[in-house]
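Table 4 source record.
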Amino acid sequence: MGSDHNSGQQPHQSEAEHSRNCALTPFSSASEAEKPENFKQNRRVALINTARAAIISVASITAPQLALAGRQLEEPLADSVRGALSAAIASSAPPIPEFNNTETKLQYLRWLGEMSTRLKRKKTDFETRKEFLQTVWYESKRAGLDISLVLGLIQVESNFRKHAISVVGARGYMQIMPFWARVIGDGDAGKLFHMQTNIRFGCVILRHYLERERGDTFMALGRYNGSRGKPQYPNAVYAAQKNWMFTA
């Protein structure tokens, strides 16, 4: 064995063995022209895929995060309904909780502390969490909605991402379709990324759908998602809602 190595001669290979060894060592010293065409094609595809991955990685950092919301449907609204929704959106009351007694205030503060702890993994800054939760509490109460239901809906819609955009163009925490800014707002869809504006739109729209469905939450949630009558979306919201239940 040692003498073969020192002699500098390679053992004789059959043509089949040589072909097999070349196939197993694609990064050999053979020239580009000698490499099989399918190998060169595969390498070109790999380089293209690598470039695409790099572009996607950069885009994911610089572009708004995508969400997987459904498509709310633009439906004809009676003038009275349009006027009521517009008035609800236009109200400029700030989201500052007001309490009739000390016990109610203490109950709110206990809720705020507990929800802040649960939300910490999604929003690490305390002041940001506090402002978000205070706004959700205020707008939910204002629209007569269960706060845990609204939080569950936000979790499903955007996973608590302020600048989330769905593949159909829905925006923000509650994934509001831009047409709503035209139908009941001032037409500026860019405002849908503003936290209070987005949550107010979402709560007012969900309340509108609840009234359309005569209080049937299952059907209202389906309508909110553009999948009325199908169980997947309402069931997902109900499951997420359990994460935000609170007992004083």
